[in-house]
Amino acid sequence: MTSDMIDFSTIFDRRESAVRSYCRGMPAMFQSASGSELKDADGRSWIDFLAGCSSLNYGHNDPDMKAALIDHIAGDGIAHGLDLHTGAKGSFLAAFERHILAPRDMDHRVMFTGPTGANAVEAAMKIARKVTGRTNIIAFTNGFHGVTAGALAATGNSYHRGGAGMMLNGVTRMPYDGYIAGQSDTADYLEAMLDDRSSGLDAPAAIILETVQGEGGLNVARPEWVRRIAKLAKKHGALLIIDDIQAGCGRCGTFFSFEEMGVTPDIVTMAKSLSGFGLPMALVLVRPEYDVFEPAEHNGTFRGNTHAFVTARVAIEKFWADETFQNELTQKSDLIHDALSDLAALIPGAKLKGRGLMQGVDVGSGKLAGDICARAYEKGLVIETSGNEDQVVKVLAPLTTSPETFGQGFDILLEAARETLTETTNIAAE
Amino acid sequence: MTSDMIDFSTIFDRRESAVRSYCRGMPAMFQSASGSELKDADGRSWIDFLAGCSSLNYGHNDPDMKAALIDHIAGDGIAHGLDLHTGAKGSFLAAFERHILAPRDMDHRVMFTGPTGANAVEAAMKIARKVTGRTNIIAFTNGFHGVTAGALAATGNSYHRGGAGMMLNGVTRMPYDGYIAGQSDTADYLEAMLDDRSSGLDAPAAIILETVQGEGGLNVARPEWVRRIAKLAKKHGALLIIDDIQAGCGRCGTFFSFEEMGVTPDIVTMAKSLSGFGLPMALVLVRPEYDVFEPAEHNGTFRGNTHAFVTARVAIEKFWADETFQNELTQKSDLIHDALSDLAALIPGAKLKGRGLMQGVDVGSGKLAGDICARAYEKGLVIETSGNEDQVVKVLAPLTTSPETFGQGFDILLEAARETLTETTNIAAE
Amino acid sequence: MTSDMIDFSTIFDRRESAVRSYCRGMPAMFQSASGSELKDADGRSWIDFLAGCSSLNYGHNDPDMKAALIDHIAGDGIAHGLDLHTGAKGSFLAAFERHILAPRDMDHRVMFTGPTGANAVEAAMKIARKVTGRTNIIAFTNGFHGVTAGALAATGNSYHRGGAGMMLNGVTRMPYDGYIAGQSDTADYLEAMLDDRSSGLDAPAAIILETVQGEGGLNVARPEWVRRIAKLAKKHGALLIIDDIQAGCGRCGTFFSFEEMGVTPDIVTMAKSLSGFGLPMALVLVRPEYDVFEPAEHNGTFRGNTHAFVTARVAIEKFWADETFQNELTQKSDLIHDALSDLAALIPGAKLKGRGLMQGVDVGSGKLAGDICARAYEKGLVIETSGNEDQVVKVLAPLTTSPETFGQGFDILLEAARETLTETTNIAAE
Amino acid sequence: MTSDMIDFSTIFDRRESAVRSYCRGMPAMFQSASGSELKDADGRSWIDFLAGCSSLNYGHNDPDMKAALIDHIAGDGIAHGLDLHTGAKGSFLAAFERHILAPRDMDHRVMFTGPTGANAVEAAMKIARKVTGRTNIIAFTNGFHGVTAGALAATGNSYHRGGAGMMLNGVTRMPYDGYIAGQSDTADYLEAMLDDRSSGLDAPAAIILETVQGEGGLNVARPEWVRRIAKLAKKHGALLIIDDIQAGCGRCGTFFSFEEMGVTPDIVTMAKSLSGFGLPMALVLVRPEYDVFEPAEHNGTFRGNTHAFVTARVAIEKFWADETFQNELTQKSDLIHDALSDLAALIPGAKLKGRGLMQGVDVGSGKLAGDICARAYEKGLVIETSGNEDQVVKVLAPLTTSPETFGQGFDILLEAARETLTETTNIAAE
């Protein structure tokens, strides 16, 4: 190590781009991590309710993945394999077929894209356009699908969209399920516009949606709404793309977020927790009849991140070979729901959001949510906000977090909330 | 390992997308690799003159990087760090500042993007548009910058462009240096159009170029042309972006491909060999005055691939702390030039292309180049083509390849060429 | 005349593009016209309930305009004046100021564009984008604004949109007032998306709307909805553009269609009946603070169609100098409403549409509406359909049509409807 | 007339948009015109070397067209006919077929578009995209094709392009013939890029060009260049569109500007002088096999400007029924060339530009050209500049201008030039 040479107090300020973000509110120098615990260079530790924004669903440095990865590296296993056949890729594919696809009756093909969620979304959008010969893709309010130009067109957030510096084309925006509380089904509106040949809604290549909008504020689509959207897509010759990058890999209580909804998407995008270990990896699942790319028509240097194949294979075999893990998730989901109900009860007007292990509380203002998370960080809990006004305190703990650790985390969170509210009240009273 | 459960002969056909490419011509099941050697599951070995398309400039599984990475993993080092401060990132930044930026008088900021080259290019284009408030970006014939929608607009290849399924906007195409042999400087044309307010060339946000076009066929820009482009960019208020994803990290004989050209780009994009180990990593270097993104305005889950920071730091310290490595590259460049001259001498009309360790031979047809590479593969050499007709046999060996291994590789290549030519002649004679 | 040389039976088939349309259902060779009457070469006559799609609001060949125009031509008055000052233009401007703008407290500037409605819309959209520095323009379902690329992006009709052969950008579509019967105010949805910074609705440069959608099927916006849209535009920094090309010039009972709504648009587009005589003329009214085009920044050869200025001046002075004409329109509106109620009563499920002298009946199917119009044509009435399925029989008679002629026209229309329905019933009964 | 009510000194300032342009340098109140003479309200007269920017090729108020038009109006002829059959349209079509199309072996269909050149260009571009299923259209440096969004994308002028307020898509720019003096044929570059599948030039739907660039500065394409472009278009499956809006209708000495070049365009756009009288009229000529629009797929209220059909028919019959007129044009072209040579001789570095009756002198600076034209105006000659820096003094006199009037006009022009030069020299000498 050369840390003796580095002035750690200034290197980031001196050299890292101003685009950096999480480190501003959580300025510790993180060094190691295990399970649901993060440690900094000084040995201070935090419970992790962020989990790399759902990229560490199985916790940090899972011992089995870690062992397999070290074995692989020590044995000079391929690290970078382009899209060549490697044993590691073959093993991953076989495990993914056996434990994920086959039991769910999915005959989808697996496309390894550049290892970012945005790249998977870009590939999915391209496939849909190629299959249909159409350009328009329907996306929803508050959706988040990445920040490269194609994916960004589908992302709702104006802060990110503004970063493009140009018009973002090819996407039509529709209201997500329940967009205006108390109003009728937003699918009515989509249906009316699709059926009306003078609506100005161009015939869609695809409809892309998240079943739970992670960045958008943990908005949940009802299964009947998703089914209706799926039916509309089919009727109008559009592909249904479910972006399961944040909500998939068990986050909603099942491997795919849509499993219990009675729909089979034409395309699924996955990334984040796919490698199990936090390593960059992404894929697109596509029905065989829509697997239309010619060789390398969509490519990318790192589409064969072999280290990730190794850990991803272990993750699938360890957690998804039987129902044990999934059953635990149901219990944890309830645990989270109860704890967050307690939190919500503290705050007038607060609303529970999300489902599964992707729940949170809309506390009504981004300021309050931010203050609660900042105070939690000081007390040893890493947790973040989401939503269009950052008004939702969002729990994205590793799915492997033990009930005890959940308890400790929630104790911190509630204490942080109480203190924040007291202080706010005191300030208001002065 | 679960390989006993897998029918390796069919898993890829059964489940991997038809988009897979390299594995079609090189169908071995690769298993391990070291230095410039690749091995398959049956123990057969190949010399690697592809190096993950220049992503493995220091060879496979460099022992020092390997040791550091295993140490890191074994010690539960952070694997996935979002954009939090980590020791691994701090160490990388410090090494990069000390050995790369400072000695070259570059005060650029380092932006870690999603870990693919395309993502770095997308970020660079967005920065230029944000800085200038302009949309148009000038790119060149035969340029390759990635296949996500923003980057793809700058990529010349119609095969990749066609994959978009939509109009690609925001980029104007200009002829690269020497585009039409024997004609006057293509920069004349760019200058005339920039100076002419009725040319229809919208004021550019940036000019993006590769100093050597790797995918485009190893076309080399003359230093004086690059300087002239840099001057035109400055005069017309555009940023100069050098895409050093394939040509950088020593590939041209110096760390950056443009070092000896007398230009300092406003923005540099890097990826491929940046991590040193083949792990996904990308960054954008940007002059401080253009480091204009707000926090997380451009983001991405895997922008903190900490494993890559670990190996990248070792790569910088091991190879770029002094001049030793760079000096060796000069000699290897000559060696490659000599060997390829021998190859070119076999083929009427063949032309040497490229520079540094990024050289090749334009053999006049994609068919011939492909046949030579296929035969080389059979004889134990992994090598690929590039160019708009795939007509260039391209040597992208690890920079660390020993002279002996180079010799063996070139022996195979020349033999493959001779046999291919003989067979072709025989067929023609029949 | 050279008609002796022409084979009139085939010249159109032989030489006119297949794009021709109205002449297919109304194949007569029209020769002359006066007031509300059209005559063909054989002396057959029709009552005109189409009025050049509302371009002949004062009837054909109004005697006062005709006299003024002949005087002008006979006296070698300027025919084509670019944007030079001409007496004819000055006189028109003065009359327009005195009788139209000043009494309505509108200090708008008058921009003469190329003499088509589409050109006025293109100019309006460009102004809004220039004023705001934004690109996005909000348009509504079933809106029709022209078929040139900029305007076509705002037009809803997929048949016209498909003619573009390319992606149409820069416009977001929202549901028009009452888009889904029985559902809540569509402005709620627009408001929610404008207020939500993650909705994906980019900040708008303008909101463009027709108060009655002529081509879209005589859909009428309620005044309170228009006021709410106007307020939302103002709140969010967008300009309000009212496209009064078809609904203006008295068609809705007042000179502008929006007069009694309590809104003053930032921009108004006018064309069709503006010249009064059916001559090509278009203009954009723009608030002085938004009159931002530099000299000739938007131009066009025929923006000074001086013949049209002559007749347009007469039209303003003859019909809008006092309230007489407007008062007659109120009575005629009632007359039309009563007659169309009789028509609607014949057809189960039929609905009255529109307002003022822009009313019709939605007969439930394009087939039925087309059959009624075809039969009316055979009986001496020129009338057309509109709507997304062409399901609305639309009355667009000259505003100057006498009650007697209205009576004759409606007699024909009802007879045509009765016969069509009888025949349809008979066919169904067989 | 109501001029007594108008304060003519201020009505334009008070009410006309700031976009007005020609009237700024030529502020007279024009009232009447005949042949090549313009008169203002005070009886002052000017020789017209502008001719409505080539919209008045047969002069103002041609007596035969005038008589026919007055007859038509007096007889209650149709003024506005949508796209119905009218006698006037039939007669025009027959004359156009007989005297223009048939003798030139052109079997093109005639599409009447909205009566502006921009609208014809928009329609032409849409046809090419529909025919080919491609989007990209190749246009040239310094081309001018209109300012509506679709056409503006093909227009080179940055002043006009900037007015769009948005990215203009769907067009690739190439250098016009002789773009850089002394360099090799610009068609080489177009050919290379079309042949190169990695050039980034998307397969074109069409190539659009003017044979003489009127607004662009009277740049002339050589016949052999046009032939080569035509060949490239054919080879690459693109339609050749010749925009003959300014250069057609005899302006270059023959009816079409391309007649003697050995090419037959797939599409021709016409407007400006088509009606012969300065009335708004435009059309698209399209080969029958490309006449692919469905009925009304491209439409427009004023596509049946019947007054224009009347005068256009007379223009065709009077001037193009035999060779007399065309022969005169050859002589006038020489006359203009001689006079402009005299002008050019006065100014060091001046260059003759253009051909036929579309000639001018590049005087080297926009300031000088503007000063000469301003002084000419004061002396009784209306004349304008063109070019990317407005550096070309452009003669666009009516084609019917007599040699005597040409003489008088050129006398004024030369005197204006001499005085301007003297004054400039004096100022410089002070």
Automatic annotation (TrEMBL), chains A, B, C, D:
Any one of the GO BP annotations: ectoine biosynthetic process
Cofactors (names): pyridoxal 5'-phosphate
UniProt entry keywords in alphabetical sequence: Aminotransferase, Pyridoxal phosphate, Transferase
Pathway assignment: Amine and polyamine biosynthesis; ectoine biosynthesis; L-ectoine from L-aspartate 4-semialdehyde: step 1/3
EC number, UniProt record: 2.6.1.76
MF (Gene Ontology): diaminobutyrate-2-oxoglutarate transaminase activity; diaminobutyrate-pyruvate transaminase activity; pyridoxal phosphate binding
Superkingdom of source: Bacteria
Cited Pfam families: Aminotran_3 (PF00202)
Keyword Cell inner membrane found: no
Family membership: Belongs to the class-III pyridoxal-phosphate-dependent aminotransferase family.
Listed NCBIfam families: dat, ectoine_ectB, PRK09264.1
The protein, known as: Diaminobutyrate--2-oxoglutarate transaminase
Native source species: Litorivita pollutaquae
